[in-house]
Write a structure and sequence with these properties.
single chain; 169 residues; mainly alpha; 71% helix
Length: 169
């Protein structure tokens, strides 16, 4: 509701003030009697002059309303016409929907780019795992060959020990 009020303050009130003038026009001015004539002003237009009846004093121009007065006027206008408030809220909701759609599209683009980066780097990850498996296989092969060599040495030492025990008997 507050956003609708702000939109009304900044969009509708200045436009209506420009249409109505400064507030000291013919609506607020006293009307002239039939015998008085409007004197032309500096611009030469008789319509711009404020007619004054005989015996009456000219009214000074009205000061501009304060922001609090404008806010009260806007609140009264919004409360008096619920369709106007609903229209403003609908327009704000439409703007939010458009902004949300743009944000979702940007997020989808980020996800697509991240997926492309992962797919591009996936080859490197697979290669790193392949290198690790090859290194593990080479290490196991090295251990197996070393164990075979140790077993053959143990067999040689056993046969030497058995021959030495036979010679001592």
């Amino acid at each position: 509701m507050f956003k609708a009020l702000l939109v009304f303050l900044f969009a509708v009130v200045p436009a209506s003030a420009a249409i109505a003038g400064n507030g000291s026009d013919a609506a607020a001015a006293p009307t002239a009697s039939a015998g008085s004539a409007a004197a032309p002003t500096a611009s030469g237009s008789a319509a711009e002059a404020v007619p004054v009846a005989q015996g009456e004093l000219a009214q000074p121009p009205q000061p501009a309303p304060s922001p609090a007065d404008l806010r009260a006027t806007c609140a009264a206008a919004l409360n008096a016409n619920p369709t106007f408030a609903n229209d403003l809220l609908r327009q704000l909701d439409e703007k939010k929907v458009v902004e949300l759609a743009k944000a979702q599209e940007a997020f989808a683009n980020v996800q697509v780019e991240a997926g492309a980066r992962v797919a591009k780097n996936q080859r490197h990850v697979i290669m790193a795992y392949a290198v690790m498996w090859v290194a593990a296989a080479v290490f196991v092969l090295f251990l197996w060959l070393r164990q075979r060599a140790l077993r053959s040495q143990i067999d040689v030492l056993r046969s030497d020990l058995a021959a030495a025990l036979k010679d001592n008997k």
